[in-house]
């Protein structure tokens, strides 16, 4: 059994990733800020797979909370084979770029970029202490966004945070691939989750207009399958590669 940490797995994309990993006999640990009772679908999953799941309530932007989660994982299972940095937030309020506040910038970047880097740093140090298992000491996958390149001037802090994740993925791959730790990225497009519920009409119109080569929203299951592809170890000679999962939204066309 392999051991995975998936941040923000209680709902949305993270829940889809957790389900995919559980189906492949992984144990899955996660952290979210609210009580597990706030996530009925995840709670049901936790109850069905209690021996292979761990939930820790905490804030991934807190160094103390990240350390506590890793400590509980090691106490229970002794190693970490896979880290999926999925936890992310959008601005609480979309504002024009010239009206963005420092408070909003810090909120988004601290969770999306800063936590991704420092949790990767923490877990990578643990992976370096581990023996190689099936070719690698561990795998790190960062969930970014096509917003690392597609500009939205009413949520600039989100775009900046995701561009940061793109560079974090390259930096970690350059540092760790020679140590038998693989680092990859995934760039989701428009995925139907609680985060995108408030802009359903906008994205429905994009789907209908043909902006997507595949005429549908993405799903958390699409992301779960992408994680399985990268975590399976078959791309062992492709450090730092980023898989775009967006239905063709960002594919350049004439």
Structure description:
With 254 residues, this protein is an alpha/beta fold. It has one domain: Rossmann fold (3-Layer(aba) Sandwich). It has seven helices and seven strands, in the order E-H-E-H-E-H-E-H-E-H-E-H-H-E. It has a seven-stranded parallel sheet with strand order 3-2-1-4-5-6-7, sandwiched between helices. The longest helix has 27 residues. The termini are far apart. The model has no long low-confidence stretch (mean pLDDT 96).
CATH architecture: 3-Layer(aba) Sandwich
Strand order of the largest sheet: 3-2-1-4-5-6-7
Helix proportion of residues, in percent? 40-55%
What is the arithmetic mean of pLDDT? 96
CATH superfamily: NAD(P)-binding Rossmann-like Domain
Entry keywords:
Rossmann fold, 254 residues, alpha/beta, seven-stranded parallel sheet, single chain, 7 helices
What's the layout of helices and strands?
Blueprint: E1 3-6, H1 12-23, E2 27-32, H2 40-48, E3 53-57, H3 63-77, E4 82-85, H4 102-128, E5 138-143, H5 156-176, E6 181-188, H6 200-209, H7 220-231, E7 242-245
Parallel strand pairs: 1-2, 1-4, 2-3, 4-5, 5-6, 6-7
Helix pairs in contact: 1-7, 3-4, 4-5
């Amino acid at each position: 059994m392999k051991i995975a940490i998936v941040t923000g797995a209680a709902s949305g994309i993270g829940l889809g990733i957790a389900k995919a990993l559980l189906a492949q006999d992984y144990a899955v640990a996660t952290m979210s800020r609210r009580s597990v009772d706030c996530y009925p679908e995840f709670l049901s999953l936790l109850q069905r797979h209690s021996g292979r799941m761990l939930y820790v309530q905490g804030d991934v932007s807190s160094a103390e909370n990240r350390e506590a989660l890793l400590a509980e994982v090691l106490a229970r299972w002794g190693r970490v084979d896979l880290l999926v940095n999925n936890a992310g937030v959008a601005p609480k309020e979309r504002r024009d770029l010239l009206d963005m506040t420092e408070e909003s910038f810090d909120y988004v970047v601290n969770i999306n970029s800063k936590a991704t880097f420092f949790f990767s740093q923490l877990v990578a140090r643990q992976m370096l202490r581990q023996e190689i298992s099936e070719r690698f000491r561990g795998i790190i996958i960062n969930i970014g966004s096509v917003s690392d390149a597609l500009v939205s001037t009413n949520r600039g802090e989100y775009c900046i945070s995701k561009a940061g994740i793109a560079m974090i993925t390259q930096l970690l791959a350059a540092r760790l691939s020679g140590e038998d730790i693989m680092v990859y990225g995934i760039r989701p497009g428009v995925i139907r989750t609680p985060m995108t519920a408030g802009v359903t009409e906008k994205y429905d119109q994009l789907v209908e207009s043909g902006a997507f080569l595949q005429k549908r929203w993405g799903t958390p299951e699409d992301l779960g399958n992408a994680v399985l592809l990268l975590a399976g170890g078959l791309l062992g000679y492709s450090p730092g590669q980023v898989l775009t999962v967006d239905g063709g939204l960002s594919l350049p066309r004439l």
